[in-house]
Design goal:
Order of helices and strands: HEEEEHEEEEHHHHH
Number of strands: 8
Distance between the termini: 70 Å
Number of domains: 1
Largest sheet: 6 strands, antiparallel
Shape: elongated
Length: 219
């Protein structure tokens, strides 16, 4: 019997099993394999990845994201990027392979990645996947519509996000919604974190911080 499991059929099965997200205002964007919802100040994203690990083994994972459009516009202006904010601009994101019962980043009873060798195996895991989305993914994108909660996650539980440059979102939120004192305090925290990073990462961080200070006249 020929195995009917492919990235396409796994994607179709995942999209169908999560169609209940429409009840929470999400629309499925097939081209991006993403459930997307427009919020008052931006967008929420629950995106799945159907990957072929070998000719027989396939993996399903999720990327969770929220875009606060005002924050992303501020970052674009600060770094001199004249491009419009797009759906690639996520103010916070998490790749769910970092989630699970033994994860050092985010402990959760259900691991955020699944492997299959047949569509029957997907069907057996379907209820668990829906539970993961309902109990972790949906609360994550709902909570982080609030920029102050988003900032708190990036500062206090950085393992719950996989942003490449989290300091951009943190300091943008500080400048837009918090006090100069909060910005100064967060810069100090971030300077300690980035002290052990690579030279290039530290230089990029320092350039952004200098731009932040100029923008709010902290120099």
């Amino acid at each position: 019997m020929i195995n009917s499991l492919t990235t396409r059929t796994l994607s179709e099965a995942a999209a169908k099993s999560l169609s209940w997200l429409a009840d929470d205002g999400f629309q499925y964007v097939k081209r991006h394999r993403c459930f997307r919802r427009q919020n008052e100040g931006g967008f929420s994203y629950i995106k799945f990845h159907a990957l072929a690990l070998s000719q027989r083994v396939y993996q399903l994972t999720f990327s969770l994201g929220v875009q606060i459009t005002e924050v992303e516009s501020w970052i674009h202006r600060l770094v001199g990027d004249d491009k419009h904010v797009s759906h690639d601009d996520w103010t916070i994101c998490n790749y769910t392979v970092n989630v699970g019962p033994t994860s050092p980043h985010w402990r959760f009873p259900i691991a955020g990645d699944w492997t299959f060798t047949s569509l029957e195996e997907f069907s057996s895991a379907e209820s668990q996947i829906s539970e993961f989305v309902r109990c972790l993914a949906l609360p994550y994108v709902n909570e982080h519509q609030d920029p102050l909660k988003l900032r708190r996650t990036l500062i206090e539980t950085p393992g719950h996000a996989t942003n490449i440059e989290p300091y951009r979102s943190i300091l943008a939120i500080d400048c837009l919604y918090c006090s100069p004192e909060q910005t100064t305090a967060d810069i100090a925290i971030l300077e300690q974190r980035y002290a052990c990073f690579s030279l290039q990462a530290r230089e990029e961080f320092n350039v952004f911080v200098a731009a932040v200070k100029r923008s709010i006249h902290m120099d």
